[in-house]
Amino acid sequence: QVHLVESGGGLVQAGGSLRLSCTASRSIYDIGVMSWYRQAPGKQREFVATLVNGRMTNYADSVAGRFTISRDTVKKMLYLQMNNLTPEDTAVYYCRAIDRGDYWGQGTQVTVSS
Fold this sequence. Notes:
Number of helices: 0
Largest sheet: 7 strands, mixed
């Protein structure tokens, strides 16, 4: 089992950057799949980015080239670096870990003003 807590959200102007963090309650070295999702108001939760076995990455088309997923196993943290933000990126961002179970954090709000 793993408990996840997101942080780093906030209000930023269009074109700006934010780095989200997801702190895990235990080592993430052996967690095979860790991902970021987001949910905008009135919309379904959608995939943003995933990190598989600490090496392979995949991104939603809408964020590819702007967002980067990474991890720090020593700090037990997953990151999402978000650059060139647009108002369409406004959402609650969630961290997810799949490790003999499916675990989600409670989310962090990102608001991008135009």
